[in-house]
Amino acid sequence: MVIAPERADRPNALLRPVPELLQDQASCPFCPGNETMTPPEILRRPGERGWSMRVVPNRFPALRVETQLARKGTGLYDSMAGVGAHEVIIETGEHARTLSQLTPAQVFGLLQVFQERIIDLSRDLRLRSIFVFKNSGTPAGATLSHAHSQLIALPLVPPELTAELEGSRAHFERKERCVFCDVLAQELADQERLVFTNAGAVAFCPWAARSPFETWIVPRAHESSFESGSAQELRAVADALAVLLRKMDRALEKPAFNLYLHTMPLREARNDWYHWHLELKPVLTLQAGFEWASGCFINPTPPEEAAAFLRQTEV
Predict the structure, then answer these.
(1) What is the reported pTM?
(2) In the predicted model, is pLDDT for residue 11 greater than 50?
(3) Structural domain boundaries in the chain
């Protein structure tokens, strides 16, 4: 990780918002009245316009539940059938409303839907891990402007999550403490990287952040799996997320961003060494040759400066 404030002097050091791909409500598959444009829904939350939130299978899935789990070797290489799940969570029935414009209660409802889908999919013993994420804006990878998140369930635990789990376990074996609880305590003591706190959650820009304005939201209470989090914890995280998104919109002119959930693999027993959390990364820089070649990231905005800027932003 390289923190290089001098890089901020380059032209276009931080990406600026670009015009979004605008869609007419009549042709938007996520708008009320267009339900036939999506596969049959998995879940629906009632609302004033018939529904307030829907979950549907992705029309262009990366993985399919219907696929039979099969592995085979091809010389040095191994392959596995694309068994899994790929779902879309339509966050609101209002076409032009963004996640940052939802109330904390609505964001809480969204987190509850995430929980419900994870619990349901965990019953499929072929699935081993689940990733919930949101790509907001064209630079972040979104192809539809109507607010939505995605969920992908995998028949394996991928390398990135494996490395995070191994690091967390190793820290606990050395110190008999959760590394995320330690980070939380350090951030609360230092305060310079804090963005927002409430009784149940803390939002902060992590030390040596990999990208400008990267922010984590960590529940204060230790819980290893998101699906085991209490309603009280989810409300606190929802409140922090709602505030953070509004601050980002105001401070950074509605940037594109990626939001994703870090949680344990499915059906794992509760433990004292891992701590679920959310990560939010505005898309303000691009990875190029150095990053891909070295695995190191260059961040032109120190997290202390990013946190101070967001803290001072009124919403």
Answers:
(1) 0.90
(2) no
(3) 2-14+21-66+80-311
